[in-house]
Structure formats: C-alpha cells, structure tokens
Amino acid sequence: MSINLKQACEQFNLPIPLSIQHLLMLRTFHEKEIILQSGKEIDGLYLLIEGRYYVTTREVTGKELLLRYCNPLSVLGDIEILQDCTIQSDCIASSKCTFIFIPLSVYITYLQMDGTFTKLLLKELAYKLQTCTISSRVNALASVEARFAAYLCTIYSDSSTKDYIFTSNLNEVASLIGTTKRHLNRIIKTWGEQDIITRTTEGIKIIDFAKLDLYSEDIRYE
Fold this sequence. Notes:
Blueprint: H1 5-11, E1 25-29, E2 34-36, E3 44-50, E4 53-58, E5 64-70, E6 75-76, H2 78-83, E7 90-93, E8 97-103, H3 104-111, H4 115-141, H5 144-156, E9 164-165, H6 170-176, H7 181-193, E10 197-200, E11 203-206, H8 209-216
Antiparallel strand pairs: 1-8, 2-7, 3-6, 3-8, 4-5, 4-7, 9-11, 10-11
Helix pairs in contact: 5-8, 6-7
C-alpha cells in the first residue's frame, strides 16, 4: 500500500493541523533496519502508519530482552521527548515500516501545548506501561516453553507467507526471550515429535496453531 502524508493523517484521524502538515515527512525503514538505537539522542516523534517493528531493552548484564511488537498506530520518541532523555530502547523493523516523522522543533512549536495531541501521547504511554509490566512478569515468571510459543504466535501474524516463520538465527531468538539456543532446540525437537511445528531449511512451520497457542498461555509480545 502506498500512502501520502495527508491521507495517513486522515486515515488515522491524527490531531495534526493541516496548516503544519507540510513541515512533517514520511520515513521508511526496511526489514531488520534499526529505527532507533538506545543511548542516542531523539530527533522527533515517529508515528507508525505501515508495517511492524519490535522493541528490545538491555539489562544491566548487557543482554537484550524482547519487550513487544508494535503495529500502526504506535509512537516512538514520546518517552524521550517528555522525559528529556536519550533513547531508551532499540527499535528494529520486522517488516518494511513507514512513519510520519514530526521533527522535535515542530512538536515543540506547534503541538506541545495541544491538548488533543497530548492525549494521543498519553494513551501511547499508558499502553507502553502496560506492555512493560506484562513483559517483566513474563520474563520473570513464564516458562521458556511459554515464552517461545508466545514469540512464535506473535510473529506468525507478521509472516508474509503464513507458512514458514523465518527464524534461522536461533541464537538471536534465544537472547530475545531470555534463554539459550540449546534449550530452544530441545523444545523444537519435542514440538516436532508432537506435530505442533516442523523445522526445515526454510524456517519453522506451524502445523497445529491451537496447540502452540495453549503453550503460549495467552501471552503475546505486543
């Protein structure tokens, strides 16, 4: 789908005055491209209108953990701008993503005191608080089987083929959900014997989504 900025503002009913829309721009990121990197300065607000990305957080040990997958209309940069801090999490495109980009100077000049736009940011902050709380509980209490099933169920909806989920880098997946590649291989072997999933050179194919969903305990990284 190709969409211009004016159409996007109308489609998502964004409280952005028409008079300043020429000051905004569209930014596109390709699959696996870094959108925001923790520790760097934020340059504005990013409003997702197409695609999907995921957010990771870095523990004091240096290990990255998956927080959530994000769909339209999610916002990046709100925490950093409101808290006047550097970027707090790594954000990476899981598919081609298009954002409405609002430069920091435009936000400060035209939108910072706009009550309707502020309400949009507050709604997004509440969502992030909720998902961070859930993610912390999942990483601390849920079994590895539940976390891996939740991961597969979450990215299944992001699969373009609806057949194979491309997870060739199991080390990366293991790191994101807080386990080891060896543990994941054991789970994949067990689930393969139970005809829940199968692994080939193309990736992982879900055979029985209902059973996988049971293992996920209704957890989703989104």
